[in-house]
Amino acid sequence: MSHRRARASSRRPRGRRAVLLSAATVLVIGSGVAALAATTKDHPAPRAAEPAASAPTDPDTAPAPGDSASPSASPSTSASPSASASAKPSGSAAPSASAGATAPAAARNAAPAAKPGTAPATFTGLAFDTCTAPPLATMNAWYGTSPYGAAAVYIGGRNRGCAQPQLTAGWVGSVTNTGWKLVPLYVGAQPPCQTGNSPEKLTADTATTLGTSDGNDAVAKAAALGMRAGSTLYLDVEAYNTADTGCADAVLAYTQSWNRAVHNSGYWAGFYGFASSSAAGIAQAAGAGAADLPDALWYARYDGAADTTGSFPFAGGLYAGHRRAHQYQVNQKETYGGAALTVDRNAWDAPVAVVG
User: What does the buried/exposed string (b/e) look like for 64-85 if buried means 16 or more CB atoms within 10 Å of the residue's CB?
Assistant: First the structure.
């Protein structure tokens, strides 16, 4: 099972846990060209304890199908309660992607898009994600009683795997008024070399055009929910074979095109992927100075560490400055305020949606 249709033997996002922090921050976006001031939002004080979790055999690998309690992935160990802007490298996963050097010509030649003129809103603390946006009553029960201050929601994409009967502009407005911060996630076209039957897959020939149309669709979906310009929208790209350089180059071209479309509409671009594959491709491209890359990186690494520093698997200088999120555990059944959910856990120190 999975939050996204594309997940075959991989896992997917849902809850996390860490101490919520509030601080004035400086957000550095791009390749050192723009320094933007951003301020974290207020959120409830975290609970002192979090549910126990078991350690995985491989932090980047999900459990076998049928082993998990919900459409997610693999569990992890204990968490360290900090999410900070600086990081230290702990071994970089280097995919075979050539960081744009052999990407489709249309992507290589496209002019970089201008980024939004206002700094993104950020959140530092714990966030959860679950396949279907929870009922409003559950969100109200969890706010202030759970350790979470943010929730990721699947706003669209042909590969989005779950129905969203709760996810309306009214729901978004209500949970925001309660105090929740929201993370919009768009399940875009998936890699051509990926296993599974995704309704939408990209190819080298369609990567750029699909990226543009999907990016525009993500903006339209977010706007319809009341998530206005200045919000950060996250593109979900699942695991794939990084040894396939043609596939990796096509994914990069698609992502760059998606980012340009999002930026051109006044939104920031984020990226969700696995530390061992899709996120590693973005980190490699960032290290090579490629253009039109995501402004924030949300990496899945199931090591149980609720932080974005010591657990960060790439070069320490990449995506520093409140631009990282870490999905560290999945499929955790939790109950707060009398309401139960199965969630994935994320340590969050990154941009979120702007509502209103």
Answer: eeeebebbbbbbbbebbbbbbb
